[in-house]
Amino acid sequence: QPAFKSCAQPYYAMLSKPTLSSHLKMNPWISYFVEKVDILTEGYIEAPPQSSSAFQSTMDCSYLITVYLGYGVEVQVMNVNLSEGDKMVFEDVGHGENTMLANESILMRGLVVRSHSNQIFIRFHSQRSQVGSVLLRYQAFVLSCVFPLRPLYGDVSVSSLHAGGQAFFSCLTGYQLQGSSVLTCCNASTPYWSGKEPNCLAACGGLIRNVTIGRIVSPGFPSNYSNNLTCHWLLEAPEGQKLHIHFEKVALAEDDDRLLIKNGNSIDAATLYDSYEVEYLPNEGLLSTSRHLFIELTTDATGTSTGIAVRYQAFAAGHCYQPFVKYGNLTSSDNTWAVGSVVEFACDTGYTLEQGSVTIECVDPNNPQWNDTEPACRAVCSGEITDSAGVVLSPNWPEAYDKGQDCIWGIHVEEDKRIMLDIQVLNIGKNDLVTFYDGDDLTAKVLGQYWGSKSQFKLYTSNADVTIQFQSDPATNIYGYCNGFIFRFFEVARNDTCPELPEISNGWKSTSHPELVQGTVVTYQCYPGYQVVGAELLTCQWDLTWSGDLPSCERVVSCADPGKVEHSRRVLSGPHFTVGSTIQYICSKGFTLSGNSLLTCFDRGSTGPKWNQKLPRCLPETFEPCSHPGTPTYGIPSSAKLHFQAGETLHYACLSGHQLLGEPVLHCVPGHPSQWSGLPPVCKGKKLNIINKNVCKTETCSAAYDTAHRITMTW
C-alpha cells in the first residue's frame, strides 16, 4: 500500500453498490450490475461491464467509491459512447447531502470530475436494449481547506491548505485581533478550518505599556467613527524614556467631537494638544516631558467623521526620536538617532515632497532635537513628469480629492518612444471627469474621456507626450479612502504595426494584411465541435493596439438556440440547451404542425452537439369544403358554385310574392368534414285578395256584397 505521510492511515478505495430500495430489488424488469474490489492506488470502471448478459428492458449500474478522510476521488473519462436516452450521474455524497458534479450532458473524453469529499457516487441507467458504454479511471487526491479570508486591516499566511496545515492571522498597526490568531485545517470527509476567521478592530482606548513604536486609530478608521464615544489611551514608555507623537490624520465632525492629548498619565495633566483650541496640526508632532501621554477622544450624538490616526514611539535620553514620513522613506547616517545623525527623505512614486526639509540633523547634546520638521509627501494636483516610468495619483490619494479641482499633468518621454498608460484604479464621481490627450497640450487628440467607475484598462499614445486633465465637480460628494485614481505609465518602443497575435488551440486565424498595420483585421475561427468565446474579429487600432482580448475555442457542450416558430409556443426541458435537453413546439389554434414537434439536442462527436430534427412549421389548418346545400323552390341563392370553403357564407332570397322562412344566411363551419350552419330556408307564397269587379262595378256596392264575392288565392 502506498504511504501518505499527511494521514495516520493508509489510503484505500472500496467499489461497492449502495443500498437500493426494496421496490427496485423486487422489480424483475430491471437488471443490476455490481462489482466489489479492493484497489490500492487507482482503478477503472466500465459501465456496463462487458461480462453483463443481455437485459430485458432496463439496466441500472451503481458505484460508490470511498477513500480515507482527507482525500478526494478524481474520475477521468477515458472513453464515452452513450446511446440516446442513456443517463449517467456523478454525485458527491460524503458530506451529508448529495451534490451533483456532472451528468451525461457534459460527458466527453478527457473530462475530469473531482469530489469535494472522500466519497463519490456514479450511476449509469439505460432503458434501451442497445446500450452505450463508458470507461472511467479513478484515483485519490489530497483534499484541502479553502484559503481563509484575509481580515480587513489585517493579513493571513498559511503553512499548508491540507489537513494539519495552519493559518496565521495578524493585524495592521493600530488594530487588535478579535478571535483566534491560528486556525488549523481539520481532517474530515471535507476538510475545514478549526474556527471562524478573526477580525481586526480598532479599540476604543487601552493601556499600552513598555512603548517602543506603534499606532493608535479611532474605532472604525479609516471609515467613520460612531457617536457617543469616550475613548482613553494611556501610553507608558520604559523608565527614563520620553514619547513622541506624529499626526497622520485628524478629521473630526464640526460640532462637539474633541481630541485631547495630555503630558502625563491622566486627564488632569497639562495639555499638549486640544482640537478645540488648535486649528492646524503641528507638523513636527508632540513631545512628552515624561514617560506618559494620555489621549482622549470624545464624540457626541450628532455628526461623524474619519477620526484619528497617530503614530507614537519611545526614545532614550541623549537621542532624537525616530523621524517618519508617510508615503515616503528615509535614509539615516545613524539608526540610533543620536546627536549628529543626518536623515534624508524621499517620497514614494506619485507623491511630492512638501513642507519641511529634504535633509534634517539631530542637534543639541543638552536637549537633542531635529533642526527642522519632517517633510510631508502628498499626491498633488498637476505636475510635469519626465521619468520613463511612474504613476499619477488623484490629489490626496489614498484619501478623497477635493471639490472643484482642475488638475493637469504632462508626461514626456524620449522622442523616439511612446507611452503606455495602465489605468489601474478609476473610481471618481459621476459628475467628475478625467481626459487623456495624445500630445503635450489640451488641443491634442483625445485618447479617452471617463467618469464614474471603470475596471482596469490600458491606453497607448502615438507619440512621446500625453496630457492628463482631471476636473472635479464643485458639488462632488466623493469621500473616504481609495476614491480617486491610479494611472501608471511606461515608456515603450514606437513602431508602425500592432504586435503579432498568437494562434489559438482548436482553431485558426486569418489576417487581412500581412504587415499588421493600422486597420488590419484578424479573424479567428474554430474547428468543428468548438465555438469562439470572445471577439472573432480583432482590429489593429490607430494607437497600434488590438481592439479586444484574444479569443479562445472551447468545446461546444450545448446546442444553439434553434429559434421560435411563428404561430406557436415552445416548452423547454431546462434553461440551457445542453446535450439531452428537448424543445417541444405547440401550434396556436387554427394552425397545424408540419414536421416533428419535439427536438432533442444530441452529441455528434467531432462536429459537436446538434438538434436531431429541423424546425417544424405551423401552417394554417385546412378543411374539406361544404357542398352546395341546394336551392329552395321559388328561392334564389347568392352563388351557384358547387363547393364552398370553410368560413364562406351563402345568402338566400325569395321570388317576389314569396316569404322566406328560416335562416337567410348559411355559414360553412370548419371541420372534418365541414358542415353548413343550418338547413336552407323555405320560400312560401303570400295570401292575395281578389274582388269580382264584374258583379260590383260602382262605389255603392255594399260591404256585405263585397265580402261575399271576395276570392282568396294562395300560391
Topology:
Layout: E1 13-16, H1 22-25, E2 30-33, E3 38-39, E4 42-47, E5 58-66, E6 71-81, E7 87-92, E8 99-103, E9 112-114, E10 119-126, E11 133-142, E12 154-158, E13 166-171, E14 176-178, E15 182-186, E16 192-193, E17 199-201, E18 206-208, E19 213-217, E20 230-236, E21 241-251, E22 258-262, E23 271-274, E24 286-287, E25 292-298, E26 307-316, E27 328-332, E28 342-347, E29 352-354, E30 359-363, E31 369-370, E32 376-378, E33 383-385, E34 389-393, E35 406-412, E36 417-427, E37 433-437, E38 446-450, E39 453-454, E40 457-460, E41 465-471, E42 484-493, E43 507-511, E44 521-526, E45 530-533, E46 537-539, E47 552-555, E48 568-572, E49 582-587, E50 591-594, E51 598-603, E52 609-611, E53 617-620, E54 626-627, E55 635-637, E56 643-644, E57 649-654, E58 658-661, E59 665-669, E60 675-676, E61 682-685, E62 687-691, H2 703-708, E63 710-714
Parallel strand pairs: 2-5, 18-20, 33-35
Antiparallel strand pairs: 1-3, 1-5, 4-11, 5-10, 6-9, 6-11, 7-8, 7-10, 12-13, 13-15, 14-17, 15-16, 19-26, 20-25, 21-24, 21-26, 22-23, 22-25, 27-28, 28-30, 29-32, 30-31, 34-42, 35-41, 36-39, 36-40, 36-42, 37-38, 37-41, 43-44, 44-46, 45-47, 48-49, 49-51, 50-53, 51-52, 54-56, 55-57, 57-59, 58-61, ...
Domain Sushi: 143-202, 318-379, 496-555, 557-620, 624-685
Organism: Sparus aurata (Gilthead sea bream)
Keywords: Disulfide bond, Repeat, Sushi
